[in-house]
Amino acid sequence: MIIRVSEARVRPDRFQAFHDMLVAAVREFPSRYPGLLDHEVLLAPPTSVLYVSRWRSEQDLAGYAGEGWRDQPVVLPGEEGYLVAPLQVRHFTSASLG
To answer: What is the pTM of this model?
Structure first.
């Protein structure tokens, strides 16, 4: 499993509008991307929003994010109008605790 974390640094005056736009945009992702196991939006007002997605495999993640999935964030149309800095993306794998 691969965990993808996209961090948006949002203009404080656009925080709620960005949240609403993001939730509407990703709501249907599980039905569009079968390798998406789970996803959530995490908020740290007034400026930080994380989109966390968990993917079955690299191939599934590349089907969503494209060939440059390791380094390139997926940017939604019009997203730059909400942000104070470009999106940051990181990837994690889970480690066994046993």
So the answer is: 0.93
